[in-house]
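Worked Example 4.2. Consider the chain below.
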Amino acid sequence: MKNSIEEDLTNCIKIPGQSGFESPIRNFLEKKMENYGELSRDRLGSVICKIKGEQSQGIKLFISAHMDTCGFIVHSIEGNGLIKCLNFGYQNIEACHLQPVAISTKNGYINGVMHSTKSGDKLSFRIDIGLTHKAKVNDLGILAGDPVHFTNEPILIGDPSQRIICSSRLDNRFGTFELLLLAEEFQKNPPMNDVFLVASVEEEVGAKGAKTAASLIQPDLALILDITYDEDPVSLGKGPVITLSDKSVILSSDMRDYLLGLAKKEEIKIQTEVWNIGGTDAGTVRLVGAGIPSIPVLTAIKNSHTPAEIGSIQDCYSVVKYCQVISKHVDQVLKVFQN
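Applying the procedure from the previous section yields the following structure tokens:
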């Protein structure tokens, strides 16, 4: 088993691209996926890679992962040279304090340190770039609306052979890495039906890109790749997590039994979770048109929405394996949904 972090995963994690500013990660993904299928975009900027099925009978499988991440956006520059910014997609305030960040400006990246405080219900985020006068900060070309991202490096922690990674942006660069792995696997073993691999935009600010992409494609079935919480009974390192219920989607008991049975037959360990809060892109995709049956296939991590998210790389490979299995049984999955 590898004791290093895969280059594609490292790139997915390190390349910035928060909600609304996905260009850097989008450009990387398009370059990687152009050899696997027919590329296009929706009008919000989600990337679509169509892989032609060998026995396609008009059935379209949609597999989506959002490429955007949480981050910050510059609000204003204060007289003392500190840069006020706003939380862009929720991030834990305590975890952000004194973390290294970079501001993306028209002149390039400018490094700084995040200072985050909380007074009552008021949250405050400011970046210190080592300057003490507003005019000097202005001279660097920092403007309101510039995006801000964490710059800490991904590392393996604990026993390297266990493949546990700590980094910012595992939400949802785990998902984009899974898309790349799926593209490679479908090239080796072409799918039965047409598959649309989608790297969607703006999930963290309202689950927007997956909805517009699904509206364009009009798929028959959707698999949504995202992260979930490492909380009992779900644990990282123990395989894909199927969300049976959350604020965005509910799967029937029949669907639960079918998915669990399919995993058992293929000897894939999977987990299930039940929530009445939170959600994924499944919530907006399932409401497109007359309705698109949607299944969240998630990867458990710790410390979600912080600069130190922790997850298992091996879980990504298990998610890919399970998605491949589902891709061979789309017709049966649809029958269960229709019951």
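The longest strand covers residues 108-119. The chain has two domains: 7-69+168-338, 71-150. Compare this with Example 4.1 before moving on.
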